[in-house]
Task: inverse folding
């Protein structure tokens, strides 16, 4: 199965939606919303902002690496 590198993040604060390319070599812990400027952080138990707010989980999770960042 091919890894999907695009994920659409939805800001929980303002609802702004933005499609981003995820890094393949690290999890992204912070994300600045381009709508309201809020700095998003992962929800408890998630490794990155894509797993918390994106429509596609990060590449390590897609590849089955549940302990990718912790």
Result:
């Amino acid at each position: 199965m091919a890894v999907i590198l695009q994920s659409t993040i939805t800001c929980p604060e303002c609802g702004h939606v933005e499609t981003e390319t995820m890094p393949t070599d690290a999890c992204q812990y912070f994300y600045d919303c381009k709508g309201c400027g809020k700095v998003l952080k992962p929800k408890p138990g998630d490794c990155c902002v894509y797993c918390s707010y994106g429509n596609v989980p990060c590449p390590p999770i897609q590849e089955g690496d549940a302990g990718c960042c912790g």
In short: Residues 6 and 16 are 16 Å apart (CA to CA). The chain has one domain: 6-62.
